[in-house]
Amino acid sequence: MRAISIETGFTKHAEGSALIKMGDTHVLCTATIEDRVPPFIKGSGLGWVTAEYGMLPRATNTRMRREATAGKQGGRTVEIQRLIGRSLRAGVDRVALGERQITVDCDVIQADGGTRCASITGGWVALRLAVNKLMKAGDVISDPMVDPVAAISCGIYAGQPVLDLDYPEDSEAGVDGNFIMTASGQLIEVQMSAEGSTYSRDQMNALMDLAEKGVAELAAAQRAATA
Amino acid sequence: MRAISIETGFTKHAEGSALIKMGDTHVLCTATIEDRVPPFIKGSGLGWVTAEYGMLPRATNTRMRREATAGKQGGRTVEIQRLIGRSLRAGVDRVALGERQITVDCDVIQADGGTRCASITGGWVALRLAVNKLMKAGDVISDPMVDPVAAISCGIYAGQPVLDLDYPEDSEAGVDGNFIMTASGQLIEVQMSAEGSTYSRDQMNALMDLAEKGVAELAAAQRAATA
Amino acid sequence: MRAISIETGFTKHAEGSALIKMGDTHVLCTATIEDRVPPFIKGSGLGWVTAEYGMLPRATNTRMRREATAGKQGGRTVEIQRLIGRSLRAGVDRVALGERQITVDCDVIQADGGTRCASITGGWVALRLAVNKLMKAGDVISDPMVDPVAAISCGIYAGQPVLDLDYPEDSEAGVDGNFIMTASGQLIEVQMSAEGSTYSRDQMNALMDLAEKGVAELAAAQRAATA
Amino acid sequence: MRAISIETGFTKHAEGSALIKMGDTHVLCTATIEDRVPPFIKGSGLGWVTAEYGMLPRATNTRMRREATAGKQGGRTVEIQRLIGRSLRAGVDRVALGERQITVDCDVIQADGGTRCASITGGWVALRLAVNKLMKAGDVISDPMVDPVAAISCGIYAGQPVLDLDYPEDSEAGVDGNFIMTASGQLIEVQMSAEGSTYSRDQMNALMDLAEKGVAELAAAQRAATA
Amino acid sequence: MRAISIETGFTKHAEGSALIKMGDTHVLCTATIEDRVPPFIKGSGLGWVTAEYGMLPRATNTRMRREATAGKQGGRTVEIQRLIGRSLRAGVDRVALGERQITVDCDVIQADGGTRCASITGGWVALRLAVNKLMKAGDVISDPMVDPVAAISCGIYAGQPVLDLDYPEDSEAGVDGNFIMTASGQLIEVQMSAEGSTYSRDQMNALMDLAEKGVAELAAAQRAATA
Amino acid sequence: MRAISIETGFTKHAEGSALIKMGDTHVLCTATIEDRVPPFIKGSGLGWVTAEYGMLPRATNTRMRREATAGKQGGRTVEIQRLIGRSLRAGVDRVALGERQITVDCDVIQADGGTRCASITGGWVALRLAVNKLMKAGDVISDPMVDPVAAISCGIYAGQPVLDLDYPEDSEAGVDGNFIMTASGQLIEVQMSAEGSTYSRDQMNALMDLAEKGVAELAAAQRAATA
User: Which chemical reaction does it catalyze (chains A, B, C, D, E, F) (predicted)?
Assistant: First the structure.
């Protein structure tokens, strides 16, 4: 696994913020608290956590077209931000959060593989800091975030199961995916897909063993950053 | 698992077509052969398989806004059609297919849960029929589709692992996902996600056991329809 | 005129539905009842009937781009759905309908010329079934649909007036158009246009004679389907 | 019929231009010659005539939203500009025109009913002037525009057939439409539609009688303007 | 400076209208009064003035694509209409205007350089006429427009400071810009930009001297038109 | 003037990059070299410099909607990126640069007023570093960037001319603008606009005196960062 670094408070306006670095992948995560919730839960007393994802045009090796210029978010972006939102929600007690929305923005400053996993891991930290603020202010009484959420990528590269693929590994891997888990080892989301090949159930199990170890390390880094 | 029915040749223009019914979920799948390929593989000699997905506005219990009116495909649509394309490609030898593109359109006529899985299973049949036509015409010599691809949804509903969820089950399930596999039992894609809860590795294994049985049944239906 | 078939109840969710076949042209029509009306008639006590039209990408001989992907409905689509809505409204007593909206979706499953006329004829059947449901429930007392509405295409093909053109005829015809009429022989809309040629008033009259006969046959099929 | 005025050469850049006034309806028509043709006729030797239509935001009694701001042309605009293009093409010998495109822009400066008919009548004048320029330069030898094209609206207003409806008449008329004809009395397009009512074949004939007289007057005004 | 002409009352529907001609640049300006204001000043008692800008497709030497077809206003259009709105607001006492909005539409009929300046100068006249109507009706008591607003372009062309550039001058000028001023000589907006070169402070001062003279002439023409 | 800091090499992929901080305004600037140029200068031998501008959603005090979600860049964004591109081009000898394009992306990480000026000043540094790389590689022989370009905002706040406004000052200032200049004191662009008020020529001169001092300081910081 690559070196992890989580720097909190990277920007001054957001209720919570963290710059997470997984090797050369750097993602700025900010959490914004708003009093309104989406229409479908208005009046329910439940809170909501959602996420948006973006990449700076030159976060990658060759410049990518800005999505604002293209006129819409691409399919990959939409898929990723839905995954981040779903994953973070799984670690939040929405009753305890109360009827408010927290939006976690994950913007990739520099990309080298695994940006969606870094976004979830770093996004959880930004969310944790924002919720801390709510608890300190007495707006939230019971902690809605008891079990931290982190994510790690895995894949089969050159025939071997590999953890936390960087971009060159990722683009060569015939099978790759993401494991989103809680610090206590429960699963939130598993996505493992083959491109132009297949994999066996044994290989799937080997990857899951690796992922469990990786997530434990990430959870430790989260704990240290938010202590 | 709900009753399966696959009616081939449902429309006359497409190179391959199938109306698949999984209980009350009905999806019309058509396969279109074109001589052009996407720019990124031009001149490579490789073929391409892609998919698009849509729902008729009143396929669902309440009418949904037409995506053509909304001005874009929603995030859910984009996610689904990328999954269908990826899954079908995994079962195709793109060298044997040769430099041509096959587009599989999956349009939901009536929805009752599991539309993306039905699309993959039925889409494979439409693709198979189109490729048969290419082989009959001598345009393709070696069969590029040796191992059939099918998909089944699973979830944890009322505490129990359940196969092939219908809409009421699906909307209540705290954990649900899809297994895309080949008839020979290899995995192509696993997606298992929790909404507002988590699941254990044992539960994951129980679901995978169920899925293996379901896919075997689907593969039999595909075999019968394309015999 | 080509063989007519109207199969009602083709989908289970819609308040009214019909699959109409005019030869190889197959259109699925569904009617959706909603309690809201457009802003410009709110509080007026009047009802509203509107229509939307779409084509599955491979309904035609070569695959057409999905309008949801293109980002908007094309000019032809907009023209057609405005015509369908206008025609159906002409056969509805909006006072008797009461302040509610019925949306008729016409989706072409397979196209072989005359899809807009089939949409109107089949759309009227779906609408009739939905209104029957309202009357059975006692929500509508006086029948708002006394005179059935049907539509037939005509044209001058190879110098001869022709009824109900199929696609090869339609694309060769120098003059073609549509007659929308009631079962009792009143006109609702006449559209007759020449592309790169002109026509005389005598020819116009000959086409209208043909259309009157065609609409009588269609009205009989509608009666049979909704008896 | 309202007073007609056609002022040619209203703008200096266009190859042909005319400001047509039908009472208080004022439309500026310009014709632009380009050497390229649409892809579907490239290399055919045939010419193309197309049209676009727009309204200034305050051409109407209350301000309408600018279509450029709304992000697309509305359904009404698309319908109208397709009609104008089709009508003008019917009066042009595309072989004689040669492989070039002429775009006729019709922009409504002030609206008081009948803007699409004024656009066709005035658009023909702009087109005529542009073609004159091509003939003078020797780029076109045989005149491609032998029979002038004009359009007039008709309707049933207060029970009576009426010619050239202004806006108050038009918005009250239960039946209204447009007749596009050549100066020699041939029909190009008939559109007659009822909104919330129907009409008889006798009424249709009465309207057509009126239209023939109106178009004769318009053709005289076109002749005078382009003499 | 080119010949100025301002014709008021060019269209009948708008509360104020003027066709301004600066040489061969012709812009139709209309002012529309509405009772609603933008959300951000609702209930403040303050009025709002805003502007929109457009060009007819063949206002220019070669035909430009219609923005409604392109699906959005271009960057140049947005820049210009924001400038017009800002400039006109600077000359309006928004308390005296009262809580209403006036939209000034500036549509270029024919372009030959300096369209944004002509829009501001002519737009002020349309606005003045609309406000006159409000004052005559007693809806506005104290005149909100005490100091007229006009605009003139300047640039350095062939090494010399030049006033009111026409299109050939403008496209050759290495430095050009706009001065928006009041009739009493106060500045509202200065924009002076170099393309591929630079300019000195002395040159800037020379241009401002020229502009002061030009605006005085424009203010006289505005006075004459609205007397 | 607020404290200036310029950190070069902030991201690893771009040919040039700089994180500029003007007080609490932080902008990440990257320069991307591409061999292609825009169509209008293809084959001319001239180079091109262009810019794009964006803001992270929570760069500001309250979260702003992501432009990629809104479906287009707002008017303010378009205005700003056109200004940045124009300003940087003014400091580049496009013949010496040769037929290649450099795109400067300016993404605001944290905003506190003056983001467009910081983008120009920092963008010049990123551009300088990218050009250095071209010169080192021998792709460019003669230095195309002889006179550095920097920008500073000015305004009249509480009756006093003020340099380098932060956000609270900027939102209160009745008059504000930007001066873009070269290190040698030549002007590139002046924009000074009043919102709801006016200013005199003397005030304009006082602001320009201030700006000259500010740009000198910025040029020193640029020199230090790129030494």
Answer: tRNA(n+1) + phosphate = tRNA(n) + a ribonucleoside 5'-diphosphate
Distance between A12 CA and the closest CA of chain B, angstroms: 30
Contacts of C47 (CB under 8 A, 6+ apart): C37, C92, C94, C95, C97, C98, C99, C100, C101, C102, C144
Strands in chain E per DSSP E: 4-8, 16-22, 25-34, 48-55, 101-110, 149-157, 160-163, 175-182, 187-194
Please give the ipTM for the structure prediction: 0.94
What is the rounded distance in angstroms from the CA atom of residue E8 to the CA atom of residue F221?
55
The residue of chain B nearest to residue C68, with distances taken between CA atoms, is: B68
Of A82, A187, A201, the CB nearest to B187: A201
Question: Which chains, if any, share at least 3 CB pairs under 8 A with chain E?
Answer: D, F
Q: Burial-class residue C9 by CB neighbours within 10 Å (0-12, 13-18, 19+).
A: exposed
Whether E46 and chain F come into contact, CB under 8 Å, resolves to no
Please check whether residue E34 is in contact with residue E103, taking contact to mean a CB–CB distance below 8 angstroms: yes
Q: For residue range A137-195, what is the model confidence (pLDDT) as tens digits?
A: 999 999 999 899 999 999 999 889 999 999 988 888 889 999 999 999 999 999 999 98
Q: Which CATH number goes with the domain that contains B216?
A: 3.30.230.70
The answer to whether the beta carbons of residues E124 and E71 sit under 8 Å apart is no
CB-nearest partner of E66 from D52, D56, D111: D52
Q: Are strands A48-55 and D25-34 parallel, antiparallel or unpaired?
A: unpaired
Q: What is the DSSP letter of A199?
A: B
CA distances from E126 to A117, D24, E20, E31, E132 (A): 58, 20, 10, 5, 10
Q: Which residues pair with F102 in a beta bridge?
A: F33, F49
- Strands, E, within chain F: which ranges? 4-8, 16-22, 25-34, 48-55, 101-110, 149-157, 160-163, 175-182, 187-194
Residue D94 touches chain C, beta carbons under 8 Å:
yes
CA distance E181 to F198: 8
Q: What is the chain C residue with the closest CA to B59?
A: C13
All residue ranges of chain D with pLDDT < 50 are none
| Chain A touched by F13 (CB under 8 Å) | yes
F199 touches E: beta carbon within 8 Å: yes
CA distance E123 to chain D (A): 14
Distance between CA F127 and CA F31 in Å, rounded?
Answer: 6
C-alpha dihedral (B63, B65, B68, B71), degrees to nearest 10? -170
- Contact list in F for residue E86 (CB cut-off 8 A) is 193, 195
- How is residue B113 written in tokens? 């849960």
The answer to whether residues D48 and D86 touch, using CB atoms and an 8 Å cutoff, is no
For chain F (length 227 residues), average pLDDT per consecutive 10? 96 97 98 96 96 97 93 88 95 96 98 97 98 98 95 93 91 91 96 89 94 96 96
Whether C110 and B11 lie within 8 Å, measured CB to CB: yes
d(CA D217, CA D149) in angstroms, rounded, equals: 12
Residue type, E94: R
- Residues present in chain A in total: 227
Neighbours of D202 (CB within 10 A): 8
Between chain B and chain C, the number of residue pairs with CB atoms below 8 A apart is 93
Look up the pTM and report it: 0.87
Enumerate the residues of chain F whose CB falls inside 8 A of the CB of residue A30: 56-58
Which two tokens mark D124?
């023909």
Number of domain units in chain D: 1
Q: Residue A52 contacts by C-beta under 8 Å, 6 or more apart in sequence? A: A81, A103, A104, A105, A106, F57, F66, F69
Q: Answer whether B182 touches A (CB < 8 Å).
A: yes
d(CA C67, CA C57): 9
Q: How far apart are CA B199 and CA D21, in angstroms?
A: 74
Q: Which chains touch A (3 or more CB pairs under 8 A)?
A: B, F
| Mutate: best of F53, F63, F105, partner A, most A CBs <10 A | F63
